[in-house]
Design goal:
110 residues; mainly alpha; two-stranded antiparallel ribbon; 2 strands; 55% helix
């Protein structure tokens, strides 16, 4: 299928809708920005894991089966709820960066 069309289903039958050139460019820019953010998030996670010797979550986080990598995105309230004291201390020197803040920073809105 051509990259300028999207396949959809209507009443069980396939149909094709052209995709706006503007939308394609915006989607590509968003995907690139998101990939760059994931690189930043992974770097922060690995640095924090090393600095805390793997002590990233508190007991509640472990009991609930929270993925420690997920603490590096999303709301601060959720991150602080499940973060270990060591991770909270690490964040004081290396602040968490949410995707929304990263996006604003990269697009010059801050």
């Amino acid at each position: 299928m051509r990259p300028d069309v999207v396949a959809r289903r209507h009443r069980g039958r396939p149909c094709v809708h052209p995709v706006s050139l503007v939308f394609r460019h915006a989607a590509a820019a968003y995907a690139a920005l998101r990939a760059e953010y994931e690189d930043l998030r992974m770097s922060a996670y690995l640095a924090a894991e090393e600095a805390t010797r793997g002590a990233l979550m508190n007991r509640l986080g472990h009991r609930r089966g929270i993925d420690p990598y997920s603490l590096f995105m999303g709301t601060e309230a959720r991150a602080m709820c499940y973060a270990s004291d060591e991770l909270v201390e690490w964040w004081r020197d290396h602040p968490r960066v949410t995707f929304a803040a990263f996006e604003r920073q990269m697009l010059g809105d801050e």
